[in-house]
Amino acid sequence: TGESLRAYEVRLAPTDEQHRIVAALEAYLSRLDAAVETLKRVQANLKRYRASVLKAAVEGHLVPTEAELARAEARDYEPASVLLDRILEERRRRWEESGRKGKYAEPAAPDTSGLPELPEGWCWATVEQVGEVQLGRQRSPKDHTGPHMKPYVRAANITWKGINLCDVNEMNFSPEEQGRFRLYPGDILLNEASGSRSEVGKPAVWEGQVADCYFQNTVLRLRTIPEFRGWLLLHSLADAVTGRFADESRGVGIHHLGAEGLARHIVAMPPLAEQNRIVPEVERLTSLLEAEEQMLRTQLLRCTRLRQSLLKWAFEGKLVDQDPADEPAAALLARIKAEREKQPQGNGKRGRGRPRPTYAPPTEEPLAGPAKRLPATPAAAAAQTPPPTVRIPRARLAGQLPLFDK
After folding, report:
1. What's the pLDDT score for residue 401?
2. pLDDT of residue 356
3. CA dist., res. 120 & res. 268, Å (int)
């Protein structure tokens, strides 16, 4: 309220000291702002570098290819096409053991006419060829209660750092549905839909954190043979980060990848031995990037706290040295009080009947000598204006501004 604002007490420094405080704050805060901008620029560069690492990994440019090593060592190697045949055989075997009726449908091979050339020993495949895709169970009000309540994973639980189980809901899964939607360690889970393109297809691996857990229809489950799991997770992460999943999604407002869209998605397959070198190298580089990102977050937080400390020191009289020759703040306050007493007083009523205070305009003296020409640019004006002299007790801030001493 107006009364509380008028009664609010503030610390008043001498006029000259106020000028020194303002100049010191501008000097420190401008350097602090520059440091924050640099840290944020490095953050953006690390994000681009992460995407570049993933892109190089799935294109065969991160480590020497198996074909190159085999030639250098004068030995043979197993190309990715042999691995793909083994995966297809395992897929057919699982279908036959499931007891399903009808004729087995061989997954269609990808159309590679518009795809770039792969490194020697690599091949293209669809996700349907190398894995089983399943969309989760749809939520329904009738399943909010029931005799078979089970925890389930939804899109909100999938993060870029893995699966976050701080908030896990439950719904009823019938015994028939439990066999279809149950999660097992090693299942790859992907974000099926999102309002943000950059979140479509975000993957994470289920490690059995919650026993007897299932998944909702905002999540896609991808299963493959164990030796191909690491590569398929890496490829899914690269396709989510680089926007390939987003480009293949459909919908307006909410972008859906869909089970059919994921099944038709095309991935590059390197030889198994090369996969076993690429995946650990990506993990090594990712751990280094995460350490750098954590350091940047720490420095940004430190800058925030330093900004608060600078403002606190400024209003406590600890930012600049005090000069005994300065006019005391009491004299300044007395002048302000005298000036207020000279102004006409109102009748205490609000509204139009209350006169407004009047202020005398500043006096202007005629310029002596010939007229001076104005600088053509702001830079020229700055060059003609000598910088103010600021006395800042740097010893007082020793250890507080390590970023700026270099």
Report:
1. 45
2. 55
3. 12
Q: Check residue 98 and give its pLDDT.
A: 81
Is 224 within 8 Å of 230 (Cβ atoms)? no
Using CA atoms, how far apart are residues 350 and 333, in angstroms rounded to an integer?
27
Label residues 300-312 b or e (16+ Cβ within 10 Å = b).
Answer: eeebeebeeebee
Cβ within 8 Å of residue 380, ≥6 positions away: none
pLDDT at 406: 39
Both tokens assigned to 289: 């990037």
d(CA 371, CA 351): 47
Cα angle: 105, vertex 110, 111; to 5 degrees: 130
pLDDT per residue over 265-295, tens digit each?
A: 999 999 999 999 999 999 999 999 999 999 9
- Residue ranges in the chain whose pLDDT is less than 70: 345-406
CA–chain centroid gap for 40, Å, is 11
- CA of 243: how far to CAs of 54, 218, 249, 307, in Å? 12, 19, 10, 37
204, 162 in Cβ contact below 8 A?
yes
CA atoms within 13 A on the CB side of 346: 11
DSSP, residue by residue, 156-222: GGEETTEE--SS-EEEE--HHHHHHHB--TT-EEEE-EESSGGGTT-EEE----STT-EEBTTEEEE
Token pair, residue 284, equals: 């090594």
- The H or E element that residue 149 is part of is strand 149-153
One-character DSSP codes across 87-135: HHHHHHHHHHHTT--S---PPPPP--TTSPPPPTT-EEEEHHHHSEEEE
C-alpha distance across the termini of the chain, in Å: 47
**pLDDT more than 90, % of the chain:** 69
- Find the Cα–Cα–Cα–Cα dihedral 369, 373, 378, 382, rounded to 10°: -40
Instruction: Report yes or no: 106 and 95 within 8 Å, Cβ to Cβ.
Output: no
Measured between alpha carbons, how far is residue 24 from residues 17, 107, 311 in Å?
A: 10, 70, 11
